[in-house]
Amino acid sequence: MASTPGSLRDLYSSPPPDRTSWRFSPDPANPSQPATIPPISHPSSNWTPVVVNSPVLDASIIRDEHSVNANLVLKTVLASAIMQYTTSAIAMPWEVGKLLLQVQWVPNDTIEAEPEISGEESDTEEVDAELSDSSSETYFQEPPTASGSQLSLSRDSRRRRSQQLPTRPSRESRSLRAEYVIPIGPTDGVWGMIKRLGRSRNEGWSSLWKGLLTACVTDAMSSAIQPLIHNSLLSIIGPSPSNSHPLLIPVLSHLATGLILSPLDLIRTRLIAQSAIPAYKHYVGPVDALSQILREEGGFKGVYLHPHLLIPAILENTLRPLITLGFPSALGRLVFVSPDSHFAAWSCVEFLASCAGLLVTLPVETIRRRLQVQVRGAAKPLRTCVQTRPKPYNGVVDVFWRILSEERSEPPLVYTRLRKKGKQPEKNRDGWYSSTGLGQLYRGFGMGVGASAIVLVLAAIAGNDDRNMGWTEL
């Protein structure tokens, strides 16, 4: 059995002579030598670069203040552009459908609406046959045994029957509408406009992505310019006004960004509204649209400072951030809810605030789209794929009044599919809402509510994940 040392002193061995050691007291063997501390090398003398993997396209960056990885910068910009383009492409069909509904002119004296079906007109033709038979009896035949009272009664019954049944549009009325115009259909929202646009012979499904490049560039430039303007205003104005009025700088930054990018928004509206038929297409692309607008409509002064473009741009770019940023907080203080105290209740408050904000922003957006489609100066009228007002508007107030007084929310006569033989077509019942243009000011309201609901669900899921993560960490 091996013997163990009696003390720990026997286990001590002096360090090798080449190892640097710390000595805080003089050496007993040489008391004249002072205490020494091993020298510490300067970080710049033996610095080695640290390589960190980047999640963007599996790129790597070298953290050095004197070197820049150009490959990483290029890949990052490319990935951001692809993501921005994909996001815009997904949302573009709904934006196109909403914009076409906003610029579509539905006059109050509309007496026809094309049927949704094509090629299956046998049922509606039977209705026409019944009307034609009744009219032929009136003008070309006279029953030999019919008395005057019976004849007047038959005429009254035929008149009442003709008033109950919608008549097919004549060839003359259909010829008045240009071939590149999509006929007015039932008011079934943005999704209905998407289907009508895709099924149109002149437009097609590719028209759902008209103006995609311009919209993508506008969104990317807005995301880059708005923070720069915000920081510049914060440095100029100072923190004291921003603390007393927290919405001042954000609203001003969004307003300045919207005014700077207003020509791009004008180009996007024109590209979406114009017809896709090459013979009637006014602009080939965004560059051609910008050059023609600057040449024919007063240059940059006309694009930025014309009252029909400047006033709606100021209204929309002021009200939208003001309602988005300020209305949820005001509504939360009204119901005593804050994002820190009640997360679920705050999500509902944001949803209600977003829906209420649409009641203010959609009419302003509709008025701005109507005035953007309207050309100025020496430019030729834009041939749009939907029916627009033949006479130009005179301003923001005129657009608002004309929509309410001259248009209607629903077409008065809508042809329905007769699934059973001999079924009577339904007759529209005009009310105060249908006979006025109030619904024209809120095209896209359902789409906005649906988008807010999706945001609410995603926020609830993210909140549950955060709470579960915090519980597991505890």
TrEMBL record:
Comp. bias regions, Pro residues: 28-41
GO cellular component: membrane
Gene3D superfamilies with a match to the protein in the record: Mitochondrial carrier domain (1.50.40.10)
Pfam families: Mito_carr
Predominant place of localization: membrane
Cell compartments where the protein resides: Membrane
Family annotation (InterPro entries): MCP_dom_sf, MCP_transmembrane
Region feature Disordered, mapped onto this chain: 1-43, 113-178
Ranges of Polar residues composition bias in the record: 132-148
Keywords on record: Membrane, Repeat, Transmembrane, Transmembrane helix, Transport
Biased composition range(s): Acidic residues: 113-131
Annotated SUPFAM superfamilies: Mitochondrial carrier
Record membrane topology: Multi-pass membrane protein
Transmembrane segments: 343-362, 441-462
Entry's family note: Belongs to the mitochondrial carrier (TC 2.A.29) family.
PANTHER family given in the database record: SOLUTE CARRIER FAMILY 25
Record's protein name: Mitochondrial carrier
